[in-house]
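quick one, 188 residues, struct below
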Amino acid sequence: MGGQLRGTATASYARHRFALVRSWLDAATVAEHAAASLELSFRRVSVGDSRGTWEEHLLGGDSGLRRLLTGAAAWALVGEALTGDTPGRPGPGRARCWLNRYGTGEWIPPHKDAAGTAHLVVCLLAPPPESGGTLRLLAPTGPSNVHLAAGDALLFEATTVEHMTTPLVPTAGTPLPVRTVAVARYFL
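---
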C-alpha cells in the first residue's frame, strides 16, 4: 500500500474534511480484491426514500478486504488525517466495512451519514470518467468532484461532508459500466 497522507493531502483533510490518495493500492492488490468481490452475494440498498439504488455486501469476519480496511496501513491513514500523527499500530476504534457495486443508471443520492468519525472509500473497479460514477463532495469550503480510478482511496468525514455519486451511463466504449468500491466507516 502506498500513498500515505503527506503535506498537501493532510492539509486538504484539515481544511476540506477530505483527502484523495491516488494509487493507495497497487494493481495486483486491486485485481485480487476485485476478483474476490465477483464471488460475493449483494443486496439492493438505498438512502432514505430515494429512487437511487445500488448493491451492497457487508464485509464481516476474516475476509481479506476487511483485513485490508482495518489493518495498520488504513488506521495509519486515518490517524494521520485526524491528528497529523501516523500511528504504528491499528487504531483504538472499530470499523464497519462493506462493498458497494453500481451498474448502469445507478447512483447514490445526496446525503450525510448519521454515524462514524471518518470514511475510507477504495476503488476496486472503475469505468472511464465519461461513464459517470463521479463522487461529488459538498465540503464546508465548496463542492468537489472526484473520479476515483482503481486503487485510489478517498478519506472523508461523511457526517460533515454531504456526498453523492453521479449515475453510471453507457457509452460506446463502455456499454455496461460497473463501479465497485470498498468502504470502511471508522468509529474512534
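The two ends are 22 Å apart (CA to CA).
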